[in-house]
Every structure is written in C-alpha cells, then in structure tokens.
Amino acid sequence: MVVEEQVHTVKNEVAGLTIKDLFFKYIRFLPLFIICVALSLFVAYIYLRYATLVYQSTGTIVIKDEKSAGSGGGDKLEQLMVSDGKKNIQNEIEFLQSRPLMERVVRALNLNFTYMAKGRFKDMNAYKISPFVVEPFELADSAATFTLNIKFATNNTFRVDNGPVLTFGQVFKNPNGVFRLIRSSQGPPNNEYNITWQPARDVAGGLLPSLLVVPKQNTGILTITMQAHSPHLAADVINQLMVEYQEATIEDKNDATRKSIAFIDSRLDVVQRELDSINRNLKYFQETNQLIDPDAQASNYFTRIEEATREGSEQMILLSNAEMIDGYLRSNQLDPVPSTLGINDPTLQAMVAGYNQAQLQRKALLENAPGGNISVQQKEQEIAILREKILESLRGIKSSYRSALGRIQYKHNVAQSQVRALPAKIQQMAEIRRAQATKLVVYNSLLQKREESAIALASTISNTKVLQDASVNSSPIKPNRRNTQMLAIIIGLVLPAMFIFVLELLNDKITTRQDIERVTNAAILGEVGHSYGKTALVVTTANRSVVAEQFRILRSNLQYVINHIPKPVVLVTSSFSGEGKSFVSTNVGAVMALAGKKTIILEFDIRKPKVLQHLDMMKRPGLTNFLLGKVEMEDLPVAVPGCENLFVLPCGPVPPNPAELLLDPKLDQLFEFLKSNFDVVIMDTAPVGMVSDAMTLSRFANCTLYIVRQGHTYKKQIALLDEFYQQKKLPKLSIVLNDVKLRTGYGYYGYGRYGYGYGYGSGYFDDENVREKSILDKWFGWMNGKKKSGSKKRKSTTV
Question: How much is the pTM?
C-alpha cells in the first residue's frame, strides 16, 4: 500500500514537471542551437551582402467610361467630341501587359542597351547612373543579341572587347556594327562594363514578367507595379507605359477616322476634276451660243420629258427586277428567292413567301432524312409547282410592265418632238446644267463629310488619366533584411530541433525516468549516478560522494518495500548483461552493512560472476563447490576487507549446467543457514531476460531490485519488466535506474530526481575523482549520451 502511494505521488510530480522536463530536455543542446543559429545568420549575411537587389515602383491610372455617340442629342459637333462607349477593364489590363505596348516603351526609353557595371562578386545595373551611353550608327544584325565588354584604362580612355584604345566620341566598328561612346555627367567610370544589346521584342519579353496590373475593386482605377534591379528603371518603365497607353488609345480611335478622310480626299479629287470640266463646258457653250436664260422657254417641255424619263426608268427597273427573279428561279431551283426586289404585287409576294417557306422546310427535312425520302420528294414537288406559278405570275407582270413602258415611251416621244422644235442649243445647255447640279451636290456632301471627320480627328482625347506617377523607390523590396534574418534564426532553431527530435525518435534506449514510467507502473526505488571512482565499491564510511549518498537514499526507500521483514532476502537482476547488477548489489550490501546490519552478497550469477572482481578479491571455492559437496556451508561466507559487517558468498568455478545446478535441494539448506546467520541477504543473479536463474531463485527472495541502465537498456525491455510486475513473477519488484549522468542539473537528467552534484549539492558532497573537462567537453558534453560507458578512453566503474 505504501509503495502504491509512492508511485501515485511520483506520477503526479512527473505530470507537474512536464513543461520543465521538455525545456531541460532541449536546453542541454544549447551549444548546437547556438552554432546552428550562428551559421544561419552567417549564411543570411552572405546572401544579403551579395544578393541582387530588387526595387519596386507603383503608378496609378484611371480609365473613364464616356457617353455613347447617340446620347449627345441633335448637336453633331457634341456627338463627334465623345468616345464610343464603355471600356472593358480586363481588356485594358491585357493591353497594358501586351508585348507591342511594351516594345513602344523600350523604343521610347532606348532600353535596347543594358549597362552592367562589373564588380568583384556581383554586377550592378547601371541604368541612368552609367557615366556614358552607347550610340549605334549601324547594326550588323538587328535581330541578334550581342554584348560589348568595355574596360577603362583611364577616365577617358577605354578598350572594347580588348581592342585598341579609344576615347569618348570616337567611332569604332566591330562585327556587331558601328558605334561610339558619349560621355555623360554621372561621375568617373568603373573599371569594366558589359553592355548588352537586345531587340525590342526580347527586352519587352524580359520586362513583362515583372509587370503587374491590378484593378481596384468596383472602380476603373488600375495600379501598375514594376519590379527591377534598378529603381530608376522601374519608375521610368511605368511612367512611359502610361504615356504610351494614352497615345495608343488615341491612335486606335483615330485610325478609322484617318481612313475615312483618306477615302473622302480621293473622291473629292475625282469629283473636283469632273465638276471643273463641266463648268468649263458650260461657260464655253454659253459664250459660243450667247444663251442667257433658256429655262423659261423649255421648262414645260423638259418637265414632261423628265417625268417620262423617270417613270420609264422606274418601269425598266421593275422589269429588270422581274427578269432577275425569273432568271434566279430558273437557275437556282433549290434555293429560296432572296426578295421580290421592290415589285409591289401582293400575289407575287405571297407566292414567293410560300416558295421560300417550302424551301426552308425541305432543307429541314434533309437534315434528318435522305434525299430519296417520300417527304422530301413531296416537298420538292410542291416547290416545283410554286416555282411554275411564280414564273407564270412573272410573265404577266413583265407583260404589264412592257405595256406601261410603251405608254411612257409614247409620252416621252411626244414631249421630245415638242422639244425638237426648240433650238438644239437650249436643250444641250440644259443637259450641261443638270450634270453640273448633280456633281455639285456630290461635291458639297463630300466636303461636309470631310469637315466632320477632321473635327472628329482633332477632338479625339484619351479616356485615361494618370492619377499618380511612379516615383523612384531607393529601398529594395528583395531581399528583405529583417525577414531574411528572422528566417535564418528560425531555420537555425528548427533544424537542430528536428535533428534532436529525429534522434529521440531513433533512440530505442532508456534515457529518462519518463521512458520507464510510460510503460510500467512499477515503482522506481532510486537513481544511481555515474561513478568516476577507481573502485566499484563507492559506499564506505568516509565517502560522502554523490553516488554514495544515492545508495543511502536507495537504502531508505528499500525500507518501505521490506518493511516488517526481519531478515530480508533481496534479489538483484536485470534484462541483460552490462546493466550494473553487480555494482548495485555490491554497494547496496555495503550501505546495509554501514547501517550495522550483517550483510552477505551472494554471487549467484554463476555464468558471469563479477562481485569478487569488483571488490578486488581473489577467486575461491563457493556455491558450485558447495552444491557438489566439496565445501562445507560454514566455509562459504568471506568477509570483505575494510568493510565491517559485509560478507560475500563466491560463485566458485563456472559449471557446465548452471540452470540445473540451481535446482539442487541443498539451496534450501543454504538459505536457512544464511537467514540464521545474517541480517540481510542480497542475491546478484543472472539477467532474467536472458536465462531463468533469477526466476528459479525468486522463491527465496522477499523483494526484487530490477536494474535499468540509462543509455544501455532498451525501451522494449521495459515491457518484459512490466510483465514480471503485472504477473508477479518476481516478488515485490522495484526498479533502480543506474548510471544516470549529470547533464542539466535538474529533472531526470541529473543525479537523482533533484540533480545532486549541482546547485544545492555543490559543495555539500565530497567531489569524486572526476577528470578535468576540456572546453570541447563542456560545450559538447550533450554528446556523452551517445558514448558507451565502457569506452576505451575511460573505464567506468558503474558496472
């Protein structure tokens, strides 16, 4: 009951220290974190020092929606002064991001040449800060990219592609063309420059990916953003882009107007020549025949003639239309008649409408049935009948038109005969004037149209307005110094944390008390630290070291387990060899002997005995000799030199059949003798996870100390321990955590639960014989957990 209460208390305390445990679990890796953060910051510094800087500029433009051309009322000039409707914002965005518009910007800013100043580690874009500009006179290939390497010998002399020495203003020729360098006012030049020429299309293609046009929601405002390696370049490209966009929209509007003006001008030239010719003929005719105003005389006759001519023309047109319809029906038997062409005959119009409807129905049938289908054939017969009816009606109509033409011609001949009575000169002059009036009407109409188009061309304005010009931003947006440094710190912390986490995942050995407590409810009776002493027996009368005090605490805790047992037998075992059973057995026996109890340690690990070796005692006859009847029981106990009340029962020679030997009935007699002569009996047995010796001997024990070694015992073996505990195969099983190394001075990584040897323990206990740590040991001591205790450099006495 007492043990269960202790377990419950321990678990509550563990739960209360979870956050601290986590902190101290990682704080011992502090040197690794510091190194990783320092390396990350160094890499960030190198990146920030040599990374190419990126600058950003932003401009704003608004696209206005204007009234449509029909909303200006009756004022023609107002209608011409407005644009042709609303603009699609998405279309304008695509136009702003188009290659042709960017090519105009490249040509306007002369961006075909890129000036790069060579540096020791990186090149710098020298746009607008270059001390010179390249002026091309001739290009060998206007579609090929080339680079000029310019090295300055002095401030005024240079070499191009390692050629002869040149000066500013001097023309030079190379395979790429003919050029010269013009000095600017930007200060002295650097030692070396690379000047790259690219076609406008290639330069525009390189600039477009860094251009971003974003509309403002529910408005016609567009924000234009540009990123470049030069702050002046980003601002200039945006500003020039807005200018070119305005000019392009105006040019687009004026394109149709210019075409109209060009057509009108060509027609005006023709009509002007014809009108001039008519005017010259009229003037000559009047001067020759001395005619002043013949209209009054011949107006009546001419009116008749004109009416007859007009009516005859109309009848001829109708007759011609009837002929066209007749010819169309005869040559296009399976097509609808487009129109009656102005023939106002209701019967004919009704038949044509029926004929066209039948043709459409036939086409609809042909979409779903072959030509030989009965329905199609019936419809074709119906169409043929309608065609004959229309042709018959047209014959009647044409006959009627011919009769009317005869009557009109008769009227015209009568009037013409009357006109012949007048002088031929009057008739001829009237014809000239009629032709003059006709041409004059056409000429005036063309002049009016040209003026309207000229007004429209002159009044065209852009539907855009620049709200904010792009300004030069001297602060780079990439790389961001603060963000880069923060990212470096985060990486410097995350990478080692992940590394440690992976190590913990891959670690399959016991590291802390929690690793044990997660698997089993068996009580942890105590913790024993790593001993750097020269001998395995650390518990002596004069020894006040940390490990010795831990064994004294273990003795106190053991009293709760063996309470009310006058002469207890303690069985010490583990999962496998090397976990410190003999070390713990020896020192538990010593600490019991210091308490005045006559104690004997049984070296019952008869396969691999180590107790005598740890006590620096010679081998002698023991248990196996007794079981074979060669030694008396009273001769077995051997006193440990220098340790009062402490005895050892040796193992003796290793037998060939140890498991069967431990089943000998003489063991019962041996334990009766031991209990009658000793206060405490401690059995150092073989590992229970490997052989059955401990299980065989457990019938003599009152309690069991199960040894678990930090960094040595596998986590999966705790499940075996828990099985022994749950099924009570071993009596009153308790755990001793052995070889706990000092790492943080707190929690489960220190000596004992509260970190003996540091803080409170410092100066309170005697120092052990610990070797002096070097600086590297102090910084990288966290790696000790990966070293085996039995390393060749320092032999541990813990086991």
Answer: 0.53
